């Protein structure tokens, strides 16, 4: 039976169990992620991190999760109350919804019922994840607008612009995967990677997806919407109590989603990694084992999220937008064209793969060689004060101290020239 | 729109409708209709936009129910995710307090709107009437079964309709590029000023003042951005307050309360520019 048939066969109780498990998974993953993030970043910065609640402070997240809903909730007087209530809901629900199409494992037996570890396998599963992320933006934008104060508004606008821009790069990086797998269904994409992970075959797509997934989730170094030094807390500045907790939840669930989606698209989903896949005729790829590989790969990405946060400084907004629109999107388009051309050539002419690899290597070598031939950017010393090695300004070498007797036009001209050399403005010689 | 949906539902009832589909329709149809009505009657522009989002989402789910998953999700991604988001963006940049202007810019606007509205209503009614009597629903079972929904759409889009498809995309790109060129023409002509040119322009008096605005007051009692700085003679430096802050509704209300109570401060004898406080 195919995956879709197996899933369509599920009884109602099994679907309910799966849905509840997915809901819990998001919440538990969020709590685990928060404490891990605090611990790991603390270790990277040579400090102990949370160390009060439970053994070594590992229960801190649980304490926070209990505390947050019971805090007083403050609603600003200028807030648009209905939209203010709606915003956290609109950001949380799509985040959880996207879990439904992620394939966590192959065929297993739950209480004697054969099924697949996935809630639903739609023929357009990839689009579901994209649609959910595009709906999640509403939460951010509306939160920023409805708070009725400038910082959240700016944060919301920034965030929306960022998520929309990087969603384009993200969508384009998925195109190559879809071309290779020939399907939009997440389950089929995983199955199609049994001969090789797309993360290896389509490295550029993988890299672009990875960068855009960090931009999409508003994480460091792209966490401009909540740049503390500029915008206080960004779009959720005016939120407190449970509503703030919902935004927090949505952010972390989104991180888990993009990581799980990346695993599905590029790292072979639940399939066992290479040396392990050789053991016992791929024994570790059956039953419940794949769950381990899937979460292993997902947590690898989540660790990189934390690692980046502990390592990189925040980008400036224009640099960030330039990276998205002028680097990632064009590079992606060129890469898609290359992939399409290669596939058409291969399918029509039946050229062996070795030829392509050789041609690719030659083209790459040529590009690298040409880039070395490019001249360095010239530093133009226009209108600058000449300085010595010590950095102090010195008078220009052709400076002539005029004699009062022969103060003639010729000398004056020369003096003007010297003055221009010393950094005077252009108005003086007009 | 919703009228057409109703018609479609009626046609489907004539052939066959599963219980699930009927339930989905009777939930989503009223929701879509409510969204449409809400969009027209909401006073706030952002609320209108949100009602429209509701309508679009309901339509997307209706597509899903009617065996068109690709169309449904593309509807959600493109219309709800991209287009309405841009609308919201513009609305927010315009500002939350700005209300509709009652001055009619176009002459005879109401007349033309009425005529065109009636025309549209006639068109829709005839279409619905025709759909109810002549057209029989075919269903998507056949194209969906052959190669799957997505592949069938791709095939017809890039085989049969490739020319209109490309033409549409060319039109859209032209429109987008044109809008950008028109929007940025000013900046391109002037070019960006360098820091030096800006300094010169400031001292030549092309800007309001040569220096940046003063920061807010930092005192032992308060260091809030809402606290104005004091000038050397003790008067309030109004420029030290952000315009955004004293434009908030609560601030205005406060002013009005004071005005009613008659506790507004009179002209300050020590102020450098007399009567400056009265202006706000």
Description:
The complex is a heterodimer of chains A (430) and B (280). Chain A is mainly alpha-helical and 430 residues long. Chain A has helices at residues 3-8, 12-44, 60-67, 81-97, 125-146, 150-181, 186-192, 198-201, 203-216, 228-231, 241-266, 274-277, 289-311, 317-349, 353-373, 409-421, and strands spanning 105-110, 113-117. Chain A folds into two domains: 3-273 and 283-373, no CATH class; 384-430, no CATH class. Chain A is built from 16 helices and two strands. In chain A, a hairpin with a 2-residue loop joins strand 1 and strand 2. The radius of gyration of chain A is 29 Å and the shape is globular. With 280 residues, chain B is mostly helical. Chain B is built from eleven helices and two strands. In chain B, helix 3 runs antiparallel to helix 4. At the A-B interface, helix 4, helix 5 and helix 6 of A face helix 3 and helix 4 of B.
């Amino acid at each position: 039976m195919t995956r879709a048939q197996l899933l369509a066969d599920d009884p109602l109780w099994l679907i309910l169990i799966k849905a509840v498990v997915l809901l819990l998974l998001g919440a538990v993953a969020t709590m685990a992620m928060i404490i891990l993030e605090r611990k790991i970043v603390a270790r990277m910065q040579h400090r102990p991190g949370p160390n009060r609640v439970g053994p070594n402070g590992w229960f801190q997240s649980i304490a926070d999760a209990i505390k947050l809903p019971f805090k007083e909730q403050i609603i600003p007087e200028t807030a648009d109350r209905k939209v203010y209530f709606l915003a956290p809901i609109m950001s949380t629900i799509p985040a959880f919804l996207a879990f439904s199409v992620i394939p966590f494992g192959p065929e297993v037996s739950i209480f004697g019922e054969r099924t697949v570890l996935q809630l639903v396998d739609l023929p357009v599963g990839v689009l579901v994840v994209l649609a959910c992320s595009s709906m999640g933006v509403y939460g951010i934008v509306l939160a920023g607008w409805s708070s009725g104060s400038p910082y959240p508004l700016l944060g919301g606008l920034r965030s929306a612009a960022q998520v929309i821009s990087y969603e384009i790069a993200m969508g384009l990086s998925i195109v190559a995967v879809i071309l290779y797998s020939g399907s939009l269904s997440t389950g089929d994409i995983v199955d199609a990677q049994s001969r090789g992970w797309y993360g290896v075959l389509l490295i550029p797509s993988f890299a672009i997806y990875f960068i855009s997934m960090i931009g999409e989730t508003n994480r460091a170094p792209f966490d401009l919407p909540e740049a503390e030094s500029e915008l206080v807390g960004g779009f959720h500045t005016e939120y407190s109590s449970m509503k703030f907790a919902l935004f927090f939840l949505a952010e972390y669930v989104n991180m888990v989603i993009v990581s799980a989606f990346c695993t599905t698209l590029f790292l072979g989903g639940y399939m066992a990694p290479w040396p392990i896949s050789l053991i016992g005729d791929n024994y570790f790829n059956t039953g419940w084992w794949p769950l381990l590989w899937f979460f292993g790969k997902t947590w690898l990405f989540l660790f990189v999220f934390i690692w980046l946060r502990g390592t990189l400084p925040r980008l400036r907004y224009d640099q960030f937008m330039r990276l998205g629109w002028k680097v990632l999107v064009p590079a992606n388009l060129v890469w898609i064209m290359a992939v399409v051309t290669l596939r058409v050539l291969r399918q029509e002419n039946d050229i062996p793969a070795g030829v392509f690899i050789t041609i690719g290597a030659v083209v790459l070598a040529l590009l690298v060689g040409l880039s070395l031939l490019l001249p360095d950017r010239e530093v133009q010393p226009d209108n600058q004060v000449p300085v010595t090695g010590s950095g102090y300004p010195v008078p220009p070498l052709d400076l002539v101290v005029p004699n009062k007797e022969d103060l003639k036009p010729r000398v004056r001209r020369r003096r003007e020239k010297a003055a221009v050399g010393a950094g005077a403005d252009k108005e003086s010689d007009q | 729109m919703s009228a057409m949906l109703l018609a479609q539902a009626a046609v489907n009832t004539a052939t066959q409708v599963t219980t699930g589909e009927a339930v989905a329709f009777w939930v989503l149809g009223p929701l879509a209709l409510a969204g449409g009505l809400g969009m027209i009657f909401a006073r706030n522009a952002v609320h209108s936009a949100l009602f429209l989002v509701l309508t679009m989402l309901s339509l997307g789910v209706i597509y899903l129910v009617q065996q068109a998953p690709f169309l449904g999700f593309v509807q959600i991604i493109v219309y709800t995710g991209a287009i309405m988001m841009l609308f919201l963006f513009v609305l927010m940049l315009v500002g939350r307090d700005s209300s509709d202007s009652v001055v009619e810019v176009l002459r005879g606007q109401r007349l033309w709107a009425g005529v065109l509205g009636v025309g549209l209503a006639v068109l829709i009614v005839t279409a619905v009437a025709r759909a109810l009597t002549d057209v029989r629903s075919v269903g998507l079972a056949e194209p969906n079964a052959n190669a799957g929904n997505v592949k069938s759409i791709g095939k017809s889009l890039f085989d049969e309709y490739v020319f209109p498809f490309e033409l549409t995309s060319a039109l859209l790109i032209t429109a987008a590029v044109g809008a950008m060129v028109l929007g940025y023409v000013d900046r391109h002509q002037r070019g960006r000023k360098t820091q030096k040119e800006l300094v010169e322009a400031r001292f030549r008096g092309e800007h309001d003042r040569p220096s940046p605005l003063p920061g807010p007051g930092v005192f032992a009692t308060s260091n809030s951005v809402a606290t104005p700085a004091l000038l050397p003679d003790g008067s309030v430096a109004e420029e030290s307050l952000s315009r955004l802050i004293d434009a908030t509704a609560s601030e205005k209300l406060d002013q009005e309360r004071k005005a009613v109570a008659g506790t507004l401060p009179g002209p300050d004898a020590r102020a450098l520019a007399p009567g400056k406080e009265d202006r706000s």
